[in-house]
From TrEMBL:
Topological relation to the membrane, as annotated: Multi-pass membrane protein
Protein name: Tetraspanin
Chief place of localization: membrane
Pfam families in the cross-refs: Tetraspanin (PF00335)
UniProt xrefs under InterPro entries: Tetraspanin/Peripherin (IPR018499), Tetraspanin_animals (IPR000301), Tetraspanin_EC2_sf (IPR008952)
UniProt keywords, alphabetically: Membrane, Transmembrane, Transmembrane helix
Amino acid sequence: MAKQCTLFLSVYKTLLFFSLLICLSGGAILGAAVWAAVTIAAFPNILGTSAGIFASVYIMIAVGSILFLGSMFGCLSIVVEKKNMVLGYAAILALVFLLQLVGSVLAFVYYPIARDAAHSSIEFYNTDLQVERGWDSIQGVLECCGMNYYTDWKQRVGTTAQPNEVFPKLPSSCCSDKVQTCSENSATNFRIGCNPKLQSFFVIIGGIGFGVLVIEILTVAVLASALRGM
């Protein structure tokens, strides 16, 4: 009997520890996803129908919120030792697992499409105000220029070189001082493209999400052990 009590106490402490990790991880995912959503809020303006890539960011916001609140419910279910509540906690973790899977698939499928659409939209910078505002916003926030590299702007239509002017002239948002004379030779030119910056958002969120996934699997395994003892 004493051995069983010791074993249950060990499982009890392990579940509380994992639930605390899930709570902290959920908060980290929520913070990272909100940060990404706010930072790249203007990007859907230049993507149009390809903006589905950002559904993965919104899904991760939901995942972070559910994990943060669900882990608190999990801690409560463990403390009061109610089997139905523990089962509910396991169901929450299963739901989060499915959401993470959907978010990962969306990011994997839509990112190349969104990247190509953003690159193609550069040629409409001078003719579409929404595209112009979108690029100016994203380049200013991320401190980048063009999709892959600042030379992407050579394809921009409606741009002609004036006498003694460096060609091509870049959008003012490609320079940190936002000067109208921003060019490829400007000292303040953001020479890195926006693609690496955007990829970093998904790498950060994906890395945190993968770590949480491992914790979720371990937690469900321990929950199964605890349920057998209830």
